[in-house]
Amino acid sequence: MQTQYYHVNRETPDTGVLTQAARILQQGGLVAFPTETVYGLGANGLDAQAVAGIYQAKGRPSDNPLILHIADRCELDRLARSVPANAEVLIKKFWPGPLTLVLERTACVPDAVTGGLDTVAIRMPNSAVARELIRLAGVPLAAPSANTSGRPSPTTAQAVLADLSGRIDAILDAGPSNIGVESTVIDCTTPVPTLLRPGGVTLEMLLDVLGEVEVDPALSSGKTVPRSPGMKYTHYAPRAPLLLLEGDSRTLVSRLSQEISTAMAAGKKVGAVVSRETAAKLPLEVIAAIYGSQGCPAEIAANLYGALRYFDEHPVDVIYAEGISESGLGLAVMNRLRKASGYQIIKV
Ligand code: TXA
Ligand code: MG
Question: Does residue 114 line the site of ligand 1, with CB under 6 A?
């Protein structure tokens, strides 16, 4: 299959191009499209066969459910059996935006989307391209991140094509996603809403409007079985093994240099996913992919997956990553880095 490539303006997308893409979706095809978080791989979310195509193109385990993307609040009522008061508050505050709500589903939603669960994950993206595409398709779009299963999510059309060229019908390129990590997933079917995946809307922001939020214990330990099925798989992993250093930033840099020197002395080619400040202190032989500046978690989130993917074109034997503080977007960044490391963590 030849993947059709379309460039679209992110603020004022060309309706002709989006209409063509919407037609592909209506016919059961797969279209990768930009969102403010990462690029998604879309299919008609009410067509089980089209949804099956997503799993096949990504090589995704079929028990890992998908998010339905909508463009208007009124579409929610045919997909969710009820919308609790807490969820209404979140919708008012954060939609459109990087927040996914888990709600009880209606019979309208195919099992192929939910992996057989009685809940469904729904989000309204902020990207104008995404929302216009959904409107023109006239159906909710099931869309996971547009990467091969297990690989870092794509934040550019080029990253999508590196994984899925020839496996999907079309791609809409609107430049880099500005948030860079996926949406926050929050389960609104529990008495107190439960954070299942940290993302673009921070825990602090959720606490601010809800007062109380449970955090899925699997998020901190990485050992218990997570309630968000997707969190149990190896994820976000670059092709070389990655070791994550976590802890106080001053001791972290000296320990990082030590670890790197030891690896180089053993003849290894070393890569580092680090801040600008830390990169300046590393030996010249280290290949550094800089994710941003210390203390700027939004910049680090935006560049994180690009930095991980950099080492696919510049192969190394081992990658060391510099951990950051878990406040704000730092919680999502650290969640993804821990998973990318397969929980190979050096605490300093
Ligand atoms: O930012 C995003 O959310 C991106 C863009 C494309 O919108 N999409 C995305 O989809 O990250 P995906 O499939 O890569 O991640 C969906 C996450 C998985 O961790 C999945 O297990 C969880 O949402 N999920 C989906 N349905 C669920 C449900 N009913 N209950 C609990 N977790 C669910
Ligand atoms: Mg994903």
Answer: yes
